[in-house]
Amino acid sequence: MARRERTRHLIELGGLVRKAGLVDLADDDRATLYGAMLELAARARGDGNMLALWKRRGKRAFDAEEKDDSHD
After folding, report:
1. 0.70 exceeded by the pTM?
2. Of the residues 44, 45, 65, 70, which has the fewest C-beta atoms closer than 10 A?
């Protein structure tokens, strides 16, 4: 059961990478994507406000998407 949950979690994270447009932007190059994520992690470690900013942006994007889906 734990393995199934872990797999689902990893699939959802991959979906977020695609949803954010990073896969297309990086031309599906995993080294580029990994490098970008390493850069984001380094920036977040150096700026305590960065995570809060990203969280607000993400919540707004999810809310806007949910609103768009409810109008279909």
Report:
1. yes
2. 70
- Secondary-structure percent of the chain, ordered helix, strand, coil, rounded to 5: 85, 0, 15
- How many H helices and E strands in the chain? 4, 0
Rounded-to-integer distance, Cα 48 and Cα 27, Å = 31
What are the residues whose beta carbons fall under 8 Å from the beta carbon of 48, sequence distance 6 or more? none
Chain position carrying tokens 């990994």: 34
Longest dimension (CA), the chain: 42
